Here is the input.
Amino acid sequence: MTSELSVAPSDAAARRAVEPVIVYPNGTLAPPDLGLYRSARAGACKTGEVLVQPREGGCFHVPAGGFFRISSVEGPQVGDLNLWNAHNLDERFYSGKTRAIHGTHITTGERMWSNLPYLRPMATIIEDSLGWYGMDEFGGSIHDVIGTRCDPYTHHLLAGDDYHHCCHSNLSRALADETGRPLKEVEMQVHDVLNVFMCTGFTRDTGQYFMKASPVRPGDHIEFFAEIDLLGALSACPGGDCSSSHSSDAAACYPLLVEIFAPADGALDGWQSPPPSGYDRSHGR
Here is the structure.
């Protein structure tokens, strides 16, 4: 029996036609100084690299004022990126607020923000070789902050077996190895990700999260400026380019390269690392 409440009212069209309002208009945010960042990057020297193997994770450090680049090096591959304050793992990337400020996908000139109560820029994208992609006819785009990361708990729920190379597990193992802390302890610090190179969106009919083959090819890269001292972790997703399967050993997977660069002395004169949020944390008390 159809509920009376599910029947469209006579003014349904008028209700749907109401103009949307941007929840967090970002026009008051000071734009990043991409000119300064790119000038400093042009004279920067490479100081290290991490080659993240397929279906594995790896950690890296970037001091404030440094740069890191994630590149496709052998074949189409997406990655799941976590960032923490290198001195305080309680401060970590906040995908939800980043999405609210910038949108479902981020690219050059946009930032990865940290969680409450810190809420400050952690990293700024200064180059994106896939920036040309834009939004396709399906509503898909690149580098999303809407997906959570593939994980063994959801896999077990839906498939009924245990799979240990989901991105959540890869990131957990990498963080445990890097910090020397117990796996079950550091797992609680692993968080929702920036899906690097992944092509995703929401279906128009059901609103479900979808993935499609990433346009990433060897040589494609995304590059960041570290706004604070960072500890990063990257997983080379078991979905490969995410064209068909997810969280399995069936997809063709390839490594991802993370390169670290340090600017020349004086290249960032006048720049300061952003402080945590200035809110007094009184919450009305």
Remarks:
- The radius of gyration is 20 Å.
